[in-house]
Amino acid sequence: MPLKDLALACTVVIIWGVNFSVIKIGLEELPPILFSALRFLIVAIPAVLFIPFPKTSTWNLLGVGVFLGVFKFGLLFFAMKADASAGISSLILQAQVFFTILLSAIFFKEAIGRYQLLGIFIAMAGFSLFLFSSEGSVTSFGLVLLLLAAFFWALSNLIMKRTQGVNLLHFMVWVCLVPPIPLFTLSYFLETQDPLTLIISANAKTWLSLAFVSYISTLIAFAIWGRLLRAHSAATVTPFALLIPVVGIITSSVILDEKLETIEVIGFALIMAGLICNTLYGKLLELVKASRQAVQTPPKI
Fold first, then answer.
1. Contact by Cβ (8 Å): 98, 123
2. Which phi and psi angles does 139 have, rounded to 5°?
3. Separation CA 151–CA 158 (nearest Å)
């Protein structure tokens, strides 16, 4: 990967890692479902007036819009309001990697390698440790919400696996048109019947948070990520996502002064080990085997 693309990949990792702390700041003033609805509305309007409809089924668009926009982000923001820290949310949400692998095996008959199973078991041990955290960064209820959010993200991944050759930026802009109405409706009945007052009275910090989450984290970061995936193989690009929880936890400790208990540090290490094993172990084995064969093969004279 050229140095320029390496810098772009690291930029996306930083944006998505910082994004969790920015969300936490925005949730200080706005309720989570309303915040999520505004986030998608800001992305979709007026972008859909200038970006063509993606070349895919409307059902694919609706599916990702509901699973990713309504359920995944709704549950994530709800958990982050009071039941989970920004750093731990960025980590536990990566359970979507394992859910995606398991669901792909069920629906697409994709084989699961031994190293992937090992990674899943290691990460599951890490997730379980957060249940024993006394006064740490996530409650048991928050853990369940985040794992459900990761599951719905995995469902949206399965739908996106079927949308080959679709412009990802165009797709995401139109996806963002789906969640606002159901999210505003849920917010009206569950959070506040006077959303306009909350929106108008929101301070500059909240609006900056919404702007970052909407334009930088969604439009710009997804556009860069899509460009990298077109230019390089998925195996080259996707491992960078492993750095997102690292950035998320470091950022939350600096910006929000969030701290981890010892048992949470162990859980963090196990989950990261599981993710690395799941994503990189097979590639590392291939490289080792290739190196051994190169050494053992005598040179041609």
1. yes
2. -85, 165
3. 11
Distance CA 228, CA 166 (A): 15
Query: What percentage of the chain's residues is helix, strand, coil (to nearest 5)?
Result: 80, 0, 20
Tell me which residue of 2, 14, 22, 1 sits closest to 241, measured CA to CA: 14
pLDDT tens per residue across all 301 residues of the chain: 678 888 888 898 899 889 989 988 988 889 999 999 999 999 898 889 889 998 888 999 999 899 988 999 899 998 988 788 888 888 888 888 788 888 888 887 877 777 778 888 888 888 888 777 655 678 889 889 999 999 998 898 888 877 777 887 788 889 999 999 999 999 999 888 888 888 888 899 999 999 999 889 877 887 787 677 667 755 566 667 777 888 888 888 888 887 777 888 888 888 888 877 776 666 666 666 666 666 666 555 5
CA proximity to 23, closest of 11, 10, 39? 39
Place of tokens 């949310």: 89
- Contact 232/5 with Cβ under 8 angstroms? yes
d(CA 40, CA 289): 47
pTM: 0.81
Please spell the DSSP secondary structure of 159-227, one letter per residue: HHHT-TT--HHHHHHHHTTSSHHHHHHHHHHHT-S-HHHHHHH--HHHHHHHHIIIIIIIIIHHHHHHH
> Which residues are CB-contacts of 258 (< 8 A; sequence separation ≥ 6)?
85, 86, 87, 137, 249, 252
Q: Return d(Cα 199, Cα 297) in angstroms, integer.
A: 69
Q: Which two tokens mark 192?
A: 């506040």
The CB-based long-range contact list for 193-201 (8 Å cut-off, 24+ gap) reads 195/34, 198/29, 198/30, 198/31, 198/34, 199/30, 199/34, 199/38
Residue whose tokens read 């700041």: 25
Distance CA 99, CA 54 (A): 26
